[in-house]
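Check these lines:
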Amino acid sequence: MLGRTDAPARRPIPLSAAPLTPPRNLHSRYVGMMTRRPTDPIHRGARSAAERGITLIELMVVIAIIGILTAMTIASVARGRPRARLDVAAKGLQAALGTARQRALGSGRDVVVAFYTRTVTSQGTGRMVVYFDGAGGFASGAAIAPNPTLCTFNPVTLTTSAPNEVLEFFDVPIGLAFAPPAAVTALEFPDTAVPVPAGGCSFCDAGTGAGAIRFDARGQASFFSTCGVAAAPNLGGSLSIVGAEVGSAKVVTVRPSGGSRIYDGS
């Protein structure tokens, strides 16, 4: 027969009174993860990758790439510069011819574009002078002294006197020259009869390299070599600017009517 004990029975604890604190080991681990500093081992790898910057090798690679791209750009610009100078020279020549013609039409006086293909300047070899022939006779050689003519005019000092006037001048840049082209694109109508610039200038004197285009009050063009020798028959004239560095040329044609056009050459 079992005897009774005198120990009092334990009373159950209600759920509302049960402790809510998690076990000590789980709580401490959770709190430690929440309060861990970035310098702790768990974060050390991520921090070093984010804050270490670039290495010397990476910097050298970037500098090398920049250097290669810069060298390629400079080489491309250097190749294009002579061709650009040739284009600018041809367009400048054509623009000067157009300006001279308009001035002749507007003033009712002759305006002469004189070419001195062998004159040496600070820019290179070759000079073009736009000359307002107020006294008359500059291109034909009939000017009365002290008025200059194509034969006596000094293209270096550009000295003249009223009623004459040097309107503008154009020097051929270094690397370019009035010279015969190796080949010319076939001239199109109405330039088919214009003489090809066999010596760089179809109407210039073979000995002195000088020549002139005279625009009269009607805008018509006449062509003269040194000392007033007019081209006959008047079929027009042409000039060639050659760029030796690029192996190409620009040919400017001028028709008796005064119109002009640029053709490609080589």
Q: What stands out?
A: Residues 86-265 form a domain with the minor pseudopilin epsh fold fold (CATH 3.55.40.10).
